[in-house]
Amino acid sequence: MKLDRFLLLVGISVGVLLATFATLAAAGPEVDVGGIPLGQEVLPKAPPGSYLTPEDQAKLDKGGEKYQFEAEVNRMMKLIINSLYKTKEIFLRELISNASDALDKIRFKSLQDKTALGENTDLKITIVADKEGKTLTLTDTGVGMTKADLKTNLGTIAKSGTADFISTMEHQKNGSNLIGQFGVGFYSAFLVADRVTVISKNNADKQYIWESTSESDFRIIEDPRGNTLGRGTQIVLHLKDEALEYISEKKLRELVKHYSEFINFPIYLWSERTETEQVPIEEEEAADDMDDTVEDVTEKKDDSKPKFKEVSKHIAEWELINNQKPIWTRRPSTIQEEEYNDFYKAFAKDTEAPLAHNHFRAEGEVEFQSIIFIPKRPSPAFLQSGDDWTHNLKLFVRRVFITDELPGFLPRWLSFLKGLVDSDEIPLNVSRETLQQHAILKVIKKKVIAKAIDMMKSLASKDTEKYLEFFTNYGNAIKLGIIEDASVKKKLVPLLRFRSSHDGNYTSLEDYYSRMRKGQPQIYFITGQNLEEFMGSPFVERLIARGYEVLYFLDPIDEYLSNALVDYKYKKLQHVGKAGLKYGDEDEKSADKIKEQEEEFQPLKDYLKERLSKWVDTVKISHQLTTSPCAVLSSEYGVSGTMERILQAQALGNKEDFRTAMYLNMKKVFEINPDHPLIIQMLAKVKAGKSADLDDSIYVLFESTAIASGFAVRNATEFAKKVENVVRQKLGVDLDKVANVEVAPAPAVEDAKEKDAGKEDDIETSEEGEKIEEVDDGHDEL
User: Last residue of some domain: 575, 605, 639?
Assistant: First the structure.
């Protein structure tokens, strides 16, 4: 579009929106554009499109003063259309935002001058779509524009009356930060319109009309109808053919709810629809419809039900679109819990009330308001791949929705949070579409994360039952935060909960710490898949028997958590399935006993290490076993059996990777119970020189123990064969005896010529089973 037209549109956007809405609000029931009561409000009747009659339009085209746009407008128009805005639909947000600014201005002025509002005290915004005229009309009852304002504001690139207003207010130091400055927002009107008409009435001037077709000039003329607005601005967009979708009431309703639902002022949409209703048939009408057939009198008496007919009814009325109020602008002490729940359901499109919320206002370095919620249930894609969670936090500027595309703003471990941030200080580019990289955003992010943690701590301290519900759903997120974010690790650790051998219920590390035995040097835990597996594990036998408490790490992520959470209050977290466990009450007497057992069982230890050298690095006397004969442990810096299964189950993992292969092939520690009769008998066999009879038994014992210890079988086929041999020995079946089975060989390979024999040459069968003859047309090539 041309430069002058573009500048014209820019000016129109600012002035027209303000004046249009002001005009409609000012119009009372006695004005021609008339009013109909709606509650306590007076709304104008909706016109069939533009408020200008064809005669008025003709006067505007011929008369008035013509002005040239400032230079470079054409280049600015191209920039706006091609680069500034992502989508055309943004125009409605921009125009409504400008209208809201105009309403804020007149309200602010009325605080200083009580006569500023006059008789037009109804501050609102109205939208009318005319399908026949292909126009979209927006009206506000704001401050409006004088003739000079129309020429200055709508004929200059990025000239904003709001900017001047703010500058004046700042010098007066009256704090007008609620007044917005939206740059070239008005120019967005030309994304969807090829002609824009602005009608505006300011208290200090007559009512004027400004119009441009985005060419090189624009016209301004005194409105021949006089003062029809009362005060405010009306913008009429003559839509392009490719933008007619914005005449749809449904589309307009969606856009207002998406971008401008929380504007301070009511937004009304003129809605027309046809409804059918059942009405009773009048007696006279029923009598005319009776046929000439004589009916039985008794039948007439029985037919006592009234007869109805369908009648179509045309309904046209103002519909309030933004009925959801921005409760975050109110003080938390004035808001009931039910109000928060209702707001969350509407805001997050959820059917259930949230588990918790935190409504706060940040002051100081950056001022903003925010409400964050914890949904009752996680989404199906919780902590999974994808970027849907990046849209959970919405950004507003002065209650106008800006964006929910904030990748990197919330960390992944807080991806379940939903909420909003509203600030007057968030730095935006001219289109408000792209956030600038600014320190303010980092400050806001830091405070939101801190408030989220405070919300969880408050829930944990005030409502244990509800917190356990939260942790059951979102505990993995807390653990992920400890693993990935060192800056919040210390704050998140108290929020952890684990099942415990103490009573089987969830417990915190602090509660475990308070129950630790005298001199206990470590916090004991075990990883696995379920409680039954833990209770039958050989690793916990002696610990539980002696009265020590063991934490049960049930989730796969706990394996990674144990690497990130090394200690708690200087007490090391010790995996009981790894070497290095200590009780803290070991003395010289027990040490001497162990030394004696080590020497006594040395022949068996040497033999076991020799036979199991492929998988075992060390064989030692166990300090943990009571009823089990042996256990397989990882080395102190190795991986547990659960972690091995995780590494092997990685669908996209590379088992040839150096680190993965190292962990999977790392040799184990084989502990034996010197008090178990099986181990005692094995020692006797080795000392008697009958160790060869033990080979299969040793292998089966090791593999079965490894399975009980949480490790996977090294070679399932070999393990099955060894088990079979042990069973054969138990039943007295010869190890060399095999099953007597006759195996019939498969037919010989069919000769190629025989394969082709019997086939019909050049015959194909269609999908319907029809035979189709191929016709040789003499062409061998395609």
Answer: 575
